[in-house]
Amino acid sequence: MAERWATALMKTGPNKEKQNILWNMAGSFCYAFASMVLSFLVMRLAGEDDGGIFAFGYSTFGQQMFILAYFGMRPFQITDGSQEYRFGDYLHHRYITCGLALAAGAGYLILSGYSARKMTLVFLLVCYKVADGLADVYESEFQRNGNLHLTGKSNTFRTILSVGVFFTAFLTGRNLTAACAAALGAQAAGILLFDVIILKRLKGVDYAWDKSRMRPLTNESILLFVSVFLDFYIFSAAKYAIDAHLNDAASGYFNIIFMPTSVINLAAGFVIRPVLTSLTDMWTQKRFDAFSGKLMSISRIIGALSILALVLAAGLGRPVLWVLERILGSGYEGKLVSSHVPFILIVMGGACYAFLNLHYYALVIMRKQRVIFGIYLALTGLAAVLAPALVKRSGIYGAAAAYLILMAAMAAGFAAWTWAGIRKGRKCKRQE
Fold it and tell me: Has this prediction a pTM greater than 0.85?
């Protein structure tokens, strides 16, 4: 039975490369779509307070713990074509980071002052996201092994399975805690069905591991991990401030008006990722004019998409928010429409985030990791002060303003260092 299941899932058809692309896109879309709509649907079904708790646990704190479990390891693992580290090394390192993520999550919640029920809900969502982090080590190995379609299939089917079980359990029992526990069980089953069993069938996967390899493997990715961890904190600082200083319902409402950022980031990713290889070649070949020209070209595309998003947010945002209120049901009248201005500010912040992502990748290509880390460190300090201050003063308006200011400042920092690096490169080339 397991053999037939694995054979069916591993089947690619005559064009494996096409399957790799299509299934990777499907997996990315399913994951992003679930992240966008889950909190909205939970608020519709469970009420504004439980919806807010779920939104914070799933898309904010749970995602922060996913980053700790993930530890920035995927880019290193999938590019380790020489097998410097075996899959067993990556797997046991991931066991360690997942354990740290669970311990850190539990420690934070114990000190948070949350009610027992909120602590339980958020911890279940932390476990769900940490399980996602464990699945990633298998999915990275699929990609390293030349089977990216299996990564996409795992992402797609695990998401469908866990989200489907979650809503079935909730609609049956109307108990959010039980539904989150059921989703966690489905996540574990999905990892077994779509990752563990399948990887066992692939050739060339070495499960042996060496304890002495854990420290050097950590050293390989520690700076990238810290940078990504700080990046997500800056990105989510407004949400943390709302959780600390407003009520659970406010977390839910803010998460809804925050949804356009997922769409903007997904669209920007489709624009940016295809050109990363050519940008890398241009930089390594010292074709600085071509490099800067390509950056400007992609920046113009992002700018055009950002203007379109802002026009839509300003012109159609209020009617869309009104429709969402009606979907949420009675008792939500005016709760979202009143946040039309924050909605526009968040779209502006999302545009800045897309822009900074382009220049982040440019700095990575230029091997300016220390610069990246320095910018993140400075912005983390600003976020820790600015977001709580603005939220306490102006509520959701302040949270949206804090998000925009932080994204704009980070975009300006990355862009300034990128173009300074290009100017330096041109100068050095002229002196050769």
Answer: yes
